[in-house]
Write a structure and sequence with these properties.
Order of helices and strands: HHEHEHEEHEHEEE
Number of strands: 8
Distance between the termini: 29 Å
Helix content: 10-25%
Structural class: alpha/beta
Shape: globular
């Protein structure tokens, strides 16, 4: 699934000042291509509602939108997982969109599996990785996460703005994300807690966003986890047309114990 392409530049400063180096919501649809760039046949097909919505979305979005890292995720990762480890840690970016988070993580040394349902989005991720000399560290992988999920265990699992207007088993997907975190690894969820004026929603529906504690409870973590972040910072975000607005995000970061149950 995917988030809307909100805020290309917002900052996590609670005073609401704009960080011009920030990033857009990089989590587009829930899909991805395999490391060779060909379609992963175990993932989603172009006939699903999710694939259709997000393919149309990205086909009509500037290719440069969402190419910077999400500012909330960047703050959390910098504070809690600044180095990928000597062996080059494995990261999973769910709903990667145009790849702002994935490319940023790869630039730090992470080996990143970038997942989205939109083939167009993933082609742009691959192009961005090639332009940045990061093709050995960025692996686009196409999945409709309601149907399939990447194999493997990851030192960092991230989902920035994993929202979609298409009905999906969102909580089940996030619980699968929990199971994909390696011992000692980090799960980072950045979510909308308010609606920006430029959202893909049409404005005629009443939207209720869960508070961070509700999201945390929905994961059903059990023992063996430490909560590193669970709050809702405010910031000034900048939309695709340069407009600005104060928005609120849920920021949740969870550390798995060194030994898994």
């Amino acid at each position: 699934m995917s988030t809307d392409t909100t805020d290309t530049t917002g900052s996590t400063d609670t005073t609401g000042s704009t960080d011009t180096t920030g990033s857009t919501d990089t989590t587009g649809s829930t899909g991805s291509t395999d490391t060779t760039g060909s379609t992963d046949t175990t993932g989603s097909t172009d006939t699903t509602d999710s694939a259709g919505f997000w393919e149309n979305h990205y086909a009509n979005v500037d290719a440069q939108w969402g190419t910077k890292p999400n500012v909330v995720l960047a703050e959390v990762v910098t504070a809690l997982a600044p180095e990928p480890g000597g062996g080059g840690g494995r990261a999973l970016d769910l709903g990667c969109g145009h790849g702002g988070d994935a490319l940023w993580l790869a630039s730090l040394g992470w080996d990143v599996t970038a997942v989205d349902v939109s083939a167009t989005a993933l082609e742009r991720v691959a192009a961005g990785a090639e332009a940045a000399g990061l093709t050995d560290r960025v692996h686009p992988s196409r999945h409709d996460l309601a149907r399939s999920f990447p194999d493997g265990i990851f030192d960092l699992v991230a989902a920035s703005y994993f929202h979609t207007p298409v009905e999906i088993p969102r909580e089940q997907v996030l619980r699968r994300a929990v199971r994909a975190v390696a011992p000692g690894g980090l799960l980072v969820l950045v979510e909308h807690a308010s609606l920006a004026p430029w959202s893909w929603r049409d404005g005629h529906e009443e939207v209720r966003f869960p508070v961070p504690d509700d999201v945390l409870a929905s994961l059903r973590l059990g023992d063996g986890w430490r909560t590193e972040r669970c709050h809702a910072p405010r910031r000034t975000a900048t939309g695709p047309g340069g407009e600005t607005a104060t928005v609120t995000d849920n920021a949740i970061a969870l550390r798995r114990a060194e030994t898994r149950d």
